[in-house]
Design goal:
This protein has 344 residues and is α/β, with parallel strands linked by helices. It is built from 10 helices and 15 strands. The longest helix is centred in the last third of the chain and has 20 residues, at 317-336. The structure holds (2S)-2,3-dihydroxy-3-methylbutanoic acid. (2S)-2,3-dihydroxy-3-methylbutanoic acid is lined by residues 159, 176-177, 243, 289, 292.
């Protein structure tokens, strides 16, 4: 099969590793880069071996006619650049979070639907090696229909060093990290029928948005009680394990624990079975972001299969509306200190 020719929008921290992950997958060729600052795009093209540089995205689409675009800009670029792709009928993968409001996200999904153009969201947590092992274990029914689950992501890691724009976001942890956990919980348990959330801002004035959030959801047919704990905070932690998620899921037939260092422990009446699900180590990945950056490879493989028409993509724009709906419902709940009910 001929490699798909694609263009990257955005030349920041994630764009560099994402291009390396595309090359790891094979089957594509990056033919152009757009960034609103031409200097940054030129440096990217030089360092990463990309042949064409643009500071005008429309000109790129007209001249290069890529098979698809990977939109790896900050959230402010997601809506205008995705809509531009839809207008040109160029399939697009948009970085998470898809949009900063539900109305924007719906407008984006509808624009691609109207033009019958594929649209996906790059949502990679559900592709992390240990989280995929957890999802597979739950889907296999090993512990029965779970009645309760807890996902924990607590870290003092300086995420702002590589992504300074995150400091200015009015809404921070639920849109940057929460979307990943909502999406993973959906992959594990199905759709949510209610959300309750509390947030804290403990890093003001350096970080504008909420950096601590606790969410309680009722999910799926079993109305599983799902607790999401997240913090980028100066909590004194005995052990920093960024960017690992820990989880504990209870069901009528047993429990599954995802602990530090990728250990999955499945306990049933037969006893406890422990297995380590470490991510592959890639030379191009920043070791401090190991499990997160390694997950881009299976995530992109899944989206590439969909772009080639070979298999369904898991994280379509339309599917991702449900992840965003939870995210915005959580903000709504936190603002009004009330449970928000959703129709599944
Ligand atoms: O994907 C992300 O949003 C990254 C993380 C380290 C959480 O994976 O910031």
């Amino acid at each position: 099969m001929k490699p798909l020719r694609f263009a990257i929008f955005g030349a920041g921290f994630w764009a560099r590793v994402q291009l390396a992950a595309w090359r790891e997958c094979g089957g594509t060729e990056c033919v152009a880069i757009y960034n609103r600052s031409a200097g940054k795009a030129e440096a990217f093209a030089r360092d990463m071996g990309v042949p064409a540089v643009y500071d005008d995205p429309e000109k790129l689409l007209r001249e290069v006619q890529p098979d698809f675009v990977d939109n790896i800009t900050e959230v402010g670029g997601h809506k205008p650049l995705s809509l531009l792709c839809a207008r040109h009928r160029v399939p697009c993968i948009c970085q998470k979070p898809m949009a900063s409001s539900m109305a924007d996200a719906r407008a984006m999904v509808e624009a691609f639907a109207r033009t019958k153009t594929p649209f996906f969201v790059h949502e990679n947590f559900r592709w992390q090696t240990p989280l995929r092992a957890l999802i597979d274990t739950l889907r296999a029914g090993t512990i029965g229909a779970p009645f309760r689950a807890r996902f924990t992501f607590l870290s003092g890691f300086d995420v702002w060093a590589n992504q300074p724009a995150l400091r200015e976001l009015e809404r921070f942890i639920l849109t940057d990290l929460g979307v990943h956990l909502f999406d993973t919980a959906r992959a594990c348990f199905g759709e949510a029928s209610s959300v309750y959330c509390q947030t804290h801002r403990t890093l003001l004035p350096a970080v504008q948005g909420e950096n601590v959030a606790t969410v309680l959801l009722a999910m799926g047919q079993a109305r599983t009680s799902v607790i999401l704990e997240m913090a980028y905070a100066k909590t004194a932690l005995e052990r920093e394990i960024f960017p690992q998620t820990q989880a504990f899921v209870e069901g009528p037939l047993g429990s599954v624990e995802l602990g530090a260092d990728y250990w999955l422990r499945v306990t049933t009446k037969k006893g406890t079975h422990s297995r380590r699900h470490a991510p592959p180590r890639y030379a191009w990945a920043d070791p401090r972001y190991d499990v997160a950056q390694a997950s881009m490879v299976p995530c992109l493989r899944n989206l590439l299969g969909a772009l080639q028409g070979q298999s369904p993509g898991e994280t379509t724009g339309r599917d991702n509306l449900k992840t965003l709906q939870l995210t915005f419902a959580a903000y709504d709940s936190a603002a009004r200190n009330r449970v928000v009910h959703l129709t599944i």
